[in-house]
Structures are given as C-alpha cells and as structure tokens.
Design brief:
The protein has about 800 residues and is an alpha+beta fold. Helix content is about 25%, strand content about 25%. It is built from 19 helices and 31 strands. α1 packs across α2, α14 packs parallel to α15 and α17 packs across α18. The relative contact order is 0.14. The chain binds dioxothiomolybdenum(VI) ion (MOS).
Length: about 800
C-alpha cells in the first residue's frame, strides 16, 4: 500500500515537473513510467478492467493543437458560410442602464439611426413579441423568481442592464452609435449594500420541494444553543466574502446565423447548448428545430455560462427581426452585469468539549441576490456535513439588492461556506492549543453528519497525511510570529476542502466504422476542463482503439442529451455514459465476431473477451482474436451506431463527496504588510482520476483562484450610484504570475465501487475549496493577526 501511495504522490509531482517556483502551466506528459504505473494501478483496482491504458494516463489535450493554432473558433469568431445567404454579418452593441433602479422615461434612438452604417436600434418599444409569463424565461438552472427579460419593458432593475441593442454593419459603428442613443430615466431609491440590507434579509424556510432541499439549510440536530453555552472552549466569529466576478478570458458572445426561412444557428459562449436552445425557442416562440446552438469551444465559464445570458436573446431577436445574421459581443465591462458570486456575511460559533472534539456548531449565512430572483446555495451545509458534531444549527438569509441576480461561481457555496468554517476551525484549534490537523482528525467523520449516511469513499485522512508530508507540516512551530525568513514573517496554514460527487442523466451516441474509427457524440460542453480528452480516453479504452482513432462531437444542441457542464458532474456523467453505450457497441461486435466463419470466438460470452488494438481478443487465449474490421465486414454492417441514455440512480444509502487537504505557506513583509503565497500543497481525494494531467490543471486553476479569493478579488460597488466601480481586470485584481508560488497537486488513491462504474467523482470545483481559508490561517500564523474579511489586503494586515 505504501508504495502505491508513493506512486500516486510521485504522479502528483510528475504532472507538475518544471512547475516549481512558477508552477502554473503544465509541461508535457510526465515520465512514461509514471503513466504506466498509474494505469496498472487503475486496472488492478477495478473489476471492469479495460486493457488499453488510456484511463488514468496523463494525456495532453486532444484539442490542444486546434486551440494553439487558432483553428478552434470561439463564439465571436464564426462567420456566415453557405448557411447564411444575403447580406453579411451585422454587429450588435448593447446599450446599458446607468442607473440601478427606476424606469426609462424616454429612449430616443434617432441620432443613432442617422449614423452611417447603422441598421436598427432595438428597444422595448420596437422589439419582437415576447411572452408575459415568467415560466417562458426560466432556463434549466434558473432559481425561483421572475427571470430578467432583456428589452421587455421600461423597468430598470440593475445598473448595466441592457436597454437597447444598436445593430450596424460593423462593430465600431455599432459601438459609436450606442453613445448616440439618448436616454432619460426616472430614478428610484436603490440599495446595493449587503450591510444595509442585512436586517431586512429574509430567512430561507422549508424547501418547496425535495429536489430543492440541497439549496436550503440542513435541519438542526441536538441542542445546539445549550451545547454551545456549555462548551469548554468556544469560538465565535464573523467572516465576510465580497462579491466576486468570474472573468473568463473569452468574452460572452453570440453569433446568430440566419437562414432563409428563419432558422437560426447560434454560435454561443455557454456551458449548456441545450439549455440555451430551449431558452431561445421558448422566449421567441420558435419551434425546437428552428434553433441550433453550437459551442464547440469555450474560453472559460466557471458558472457564468450556466444560464443563458442576455446577449444571446438580443442576437437571436435582432437576427429574426432584421432577417439577417447578427453577432453580439459583450465588453469586459458589460460582463460584470451577468451575475456574480454572492457577497456573504457568515457568523460561525464552534464549541469544543474538554477532549478537544466538536460539541456545537452554529452557522448563519446572509447572502446576496437580486430583487427579482432568489438565488442561493447551501453555504451552511458544509459545516453540517464535514465534522462529527452532535449539536448543530444553521440559518440562511437572503439580502435582496438592486443588482443582477447572483449566480454559481466555481464551487458555489463551498468556496465561501468552507472558508468561514475552516477559519473558525483554525481559531478553535488555537483556543484548544491543538495542531489544526490534529483537531480535524479528532472530529473526522466517516458519515455525512447531515444525513447520517456513510460515504461511498472518503480518503480525506490520506489527504491530510500525504499533504502534510509533502508540505513538511511536521516542522511547523505552532506559535504565531514564530517563523521568519529575513524581513518576512512566515506562516503555515491548512484547511479542509469538500465538494459533491454529482452525476446527471446524459445520453451518448457512438458510431463505429469498420475502418476502426469511432465517433462519440454528446451535447455536453468542454468549457476548458478537458472533456474532449477524457471522452476520447474512455471511448478508446472501452473499444480497444488508439486515441487518434476516436473523435468527439460535443457542444451542439442537436446531439444526444446533456445537462449543462457544471457542478463537477460532467466527467462522471459523460464517461460512464460512454461506458454504457460502448457496452452496446461491444455486444454488437461480439455478435458479429461470433458469426465470422470458423470464428475462434464462436462460443465466447461478453465476459470472455477484451478489446485491444482494434480486435476482440479472448481473455483465456490471447491468440484467439477477431478484428473489428473483419467482424463488421463479415456481418455487412458499417457503421455500428448505438445511442444510450444513462441515469445514475443514487443508491440512497451513501454520501458522495470529494475532499481535499490544503497546506499553504505565506511570507508577509513585516513593514509593508504585503502577503505572498510562496508554496501550496493541495492533496485531493476525488475517486478515479481519468486524466491526471488535465485534472492537475483543474486543481491548479482552482488553487490560483483561491489565492485570488484570499488576497485580491473584490467587486466594488459605489452604493451612491448602485454601480460596479471596478468592472475591468485592471481594477478587479486577479492573481498574476508574480502572485503565484509553487503549487503541488497530489491525487490520493480513492477506489470507489459505489459512486459509479468507473469510480469517477469530478475535479472541477474541489481545487478552490479550502484554499482561501488555508491562506488566511497562514496569514494569522505568520502575523498573529486574524483577518476575517476577504480579500486580505495589506491595509487589513497592517491595521
Ligand atoms: Mo460550475 S460554478 O457549476 O460552472
């Protein structure tokens, strides 16, 4: 076992060779022996072992060449081809509201319309007909409430709201003419400050349906107040996370190609092509086959592309109204009106008994949403789930502000809820004079504390152990301000991370040709996470083909059904969907192979054969084989096409989660208060890792974001105007290379035969969870100063 752990540990390092010191970009594949070792390990630990070794092998992105050569086109880069006859592509520029609340008293496009090259100006006064029911606007992942309707009427609900679309022959003209649209407002009093709305925040009560229960606070247990009052050691603290924005590199954009007859093909930036397709057809009262949404590549979403955004409706409406193709690209500034990680105030009380284990947990959250939709996730649920604690109570209140609706942003609710929890645990460890890892081990739980269910797998102990060892945690001197490097104070902090291992119904189509090529099709997205690559690996393994014999089709609403790509659920969902469909292809191939004259597999049962190198091979006698080509040629079938829907019925008896242990080193300039994250180890337990290379990349991206959350990121609202002040990446600070030290990612071994056949749990979100807390705890250890308001800027360190 020890050697197995070492190999995994080496793998974490190997995937990051060359990353030390600058560690963000992954180099080429790690040493071949590492991949092979892991592949063998995976084979050994699964009963449904595949013979070709792609699953578990560090594999470069199959779409990497297309991306670096520019061959891959993003939403704003598509141009009309034979699809769209008639005049070329028109360009739309969005006019946005300067006020946060009120109504449009007058909107006058006449000057804009007089500008040469302007085609039209769409407003609420001349738009196409739109439905009046909220339901028509509610997309697959809409929260409760009344969704925003672009150009529906004269109401202003948030600053930055679209109020007109200027369409011109070129983008510069559209942008210039947008400045010529005259707008008069009737303003109303607005509120955009969570602290001002705190007392009016509305407590979430019972979930309206069992399906929504995961978004509501967990049920209380025991006698929390009494237990807290009686605790031997108590800590109570208030923690704050500001509004943050996703800032994906690719701007939001829609290219709506108009076909004679009125059909639209929309190249779109989205995490869910079918979600957008349903939304556009619903709002514009079009038939399903009249709108096709394509998103073959996406330059980052992080949750901002889960819901259809307003530019797609504006582009589609303009294309229908003008009977020509229209592109709408948002500016960076305009993207700040699309949704954000809700600001939140959290109060946590933790009480421990004399033995240093948790006795009471009180967790209250106030989060921000708009005045028209109730977006919330379960910030407090993680405190309920993670540690053994007999008495616990949770409340969650919503503060309604005159802003756009908040939305999911990487590890929604966990990045923030676990930040408060893990800082509070650190403060409790200080009060108990316990090592922070030791406190967590004493409270370790093998059951989800909210439900009492055991985990399908939980290798968090291994995360603590391997993470601590890789970091050198044993050398930590416990006292604050007790470690130093020249002019800098050194701090070591740690935190636990947790996320869900979710999976969703999905359908996959596999088309296998006799020449040994397989096409795998599903309407899922690859939002930059590596979905193309893992789909290729899984299909190649299941069909016994080399990677380059498999091609992937995704990001097209006409392909087999997929949920939005979010929640870290696509890797598990689509890879197991591929397994299911490949089983059908394999059964058909075996039927054909058995029918070949003098077939050496004539009596073979499904379990008797493996698929290797384009052949069906007997497990008992590897010399008994029939090639896929021979089987299909003999059967006269080419291609084999199978499509299967796959659902993942929860067994109802287990909790499915991923976990991590994050160890961070900071160095703090004692005189200037500047905080640097010099080293960070993130040890992750996420079931089977399909592709250690792209998975490590996911975790690193999460870590970098966690550094931003801890030290840099904050959307600043001018509450006088109700307007975001730093709507650009110059003033909204994200980590740059100089802010990011050495990052080491470790995947601990976590076999899981329960969660799904491949044992995959997903890694898209776990990488950020716990990072901000580990850094905040390290800043305390370095300086003795506890900063509970994020981001930890130098003024707070020096205050
Ligand atoms: Mo993720 S925040 O579910 O895109």
């Amino acid at each position: 076992m020890a050697s197995e752990i070492n190999r995994r540990d080496v793998l974490g390092g190997a995937a990051l060779v060359g990353a030390a010191g600058v560690g963000r970009l992954l180099p080429g594949d790690g040493p071949r022996s590492v991949g092979t070792a892991l592949a063998q390990e995976n084979r050994a630990s699964t009963p449904m072992a595949s013979v070709t070794p792609h699953i578990g092998t560090p594999t470069s992105r199959v779409d990497g060449r297309a991306k670096v050569t520019g061959w891959a086109r993003y939403a704003a880069e598509h141009i009309p081809s034979g699809l769209a006859l008639g005049p070329g592509l028109a360009q739309g520029f969005v006019v946005t509201s300067d006020i946060a609340r009120g109504r449009l008293a007058r909107i006058d496009p006449s000057d804009a319309l007089r500008a040469a090259g302007v085609i039209d100006v769409l407003t609420h006064e001349n738009r196409l007909p739109m439905p009046d029911s909220d339901k028509a606007y509610q997309d697959d992942v809409a929260p409760a409430g009344s969704p925003f309707r672009p150009l529906y009427d004269d109401r202003i609900k948030f600053s930055g709201q679209p109020i007109a679309l200027v369409v011109a022959e070129d983008w510069e003209t559209a942008r210039f003419a947008a400045s010529l649209v005259h707008v008069e407002y009737e303003t109303e009093a607005h509120v955009t400050d969570i602290y001002r709305q705190r007392d009016k925040a509305v407590a979430l009560k019972e979930p309206p349906s069992p399906a929504e229960a995961p978004f509501f606070p967990p049920k209380p247990r025991g006698s929390p107040e009494a237990a807290f009052a009686a605790a031997v050691v108590r800590h109570e603290g208030e923690y704050y996370v500001p509004i943050e924005h996703h800032n994906p590199m690719e701007p939001f954009a829609s290219t709506a190609l108009f076909e004679p007859g009125g059909k639209l093909t929309i190249f779109e930036k989205t995490q869910g092509v079918q979600n957008v397709q349903r939304y556009v057809t619903s709002v514009l009262a079009m038939k399903p086959d009249e709108v096709r949404v394509m998103s073959p590549y996406m330059g980052g979403g992080f949750g901002s592309g889960l819901r259809p955004q307003f530019q797609v409706l504006l582009a589609a409406m303009a294309a229908r109204k003008l009977q020509r193709s229209v592109r709408v690209v948002l500016t960076r500034q305009q993207m700040y009106a699309l949704g954000y990680r809700p600001a939140m105030i959290q109060r946590i009380g933790v009480g421990a008994n004399a033995g240093g284990t948790l006795d009471a947990m009180l967790h209250e959250a106030v989060t921000v949403t708009s005045q028209f939709e109730d977006f919330h996730r379960q910030e407090t649920g993680w405190s309920g789930l993670l540690y053994t604690c007999p008495n616990a109570k949770y409340t969650h209140k919503l503060a309604h502000l005159d802003l756009a609706t908040s939305c999911d942003m990487r590890a929604p609710s966990a990045a923030t809820g676990v930040y408060a929890l893990e800082c509070a645990m650190d403060e409790l460890a200080v009060a108990l004079k316990l090592d922070p890892v030791e406190l967590r081990l004493r409270c370790y739980s093998d059951r989800d504390q909210n439900t009492g269910q055991p985990y399908s797998s939980k290798a968090l102990r291994d995360c603590y152990r391997q993470g601590a060892e890789a970091f050198g945690w044993a050398k930590r001197s416990p006292g604050p301000r007790s470690m130093r490097d020249g002019m800098e104070l050194v701090g070591w902090g740690m935190a636990t991370g947790v996320w869900e291992a979710l999976q969703m119904p999905i359908a996959v189509r596999v088309t296998l040709s006799a020449n040994g090529h397989a096409e795998v099709a599903c309407a899922t997205s690859d939002i930059g996470t590596g979905t193309y690559t893992i789909m290729t690996q899984v299909a190649a393994d299941r069909l016994g083909l080399p990677l380059d014999a498999v091609s992937i089709k995704l990001g097209d609403s006409t392909l087999p059904q997929s949920p939005v790509e979010g929640g870290s659920w696509i890797a598990a969902s689509v890879s197991n969907g591929i397994v299911t469909t490949c089983e059908a292809v394999r059964a058909e191939l075996l039927r054909l192979a058995r029918a070949v004259p003098n077939s050496p597999l004539a009596n073979a049962a499904p379990d008797d054969v493996t698929f290797v190198d384009g052949k069906l091979v007997s497990r008992r006698d590897p010399s008994s084989a029939v090639s896929i080509a021979d089987a299909m040629r003999n059967g006269g079938i080419n291609p084999i096409v199978e499509e299967r829907p796959t659902t993942f019925p929860h067994d109802g008896a287990h909790a499915h989660n991923t976990h991590s242990a994050v160890f961070a080193e900071v160095k703090v300039d004692e005189q200037l208060g500047v905080v640097r994250v010099t080293r960070l180890v993130n040890a992750v337990a996420a079931g089977r890792i399909l592709n250690p290379k792209t998975a490590a990349s996911q975790i690193m991206g999460g870590v970098v974001w966690g550094i931003g959350m801890a030290l840099h990121e904050e959307t600043l609202v001018d509450h006088v105007f109700g307007r975001i002040m730093n709507a650009n990446i110059a003033e909204y600070h994200v980590p740059v290379n100089a802010d990011v030290g050495d990052i080491k990612v470790i995947f601990v071994d976590e076999p899981d035969a329960i969660v799904n056949p491949l044992g995959v749990k997903g890694v898209g979100e776990i990488g950020i969870v716990g990072v901000a807390a580990a850094i905040a705890n390290a800043v305390y250890h370095a300086t003795g100063r506890r900063v509970r308001d994020l981001p930890i800027t130098l003024d707070k360190v020096m205050a």
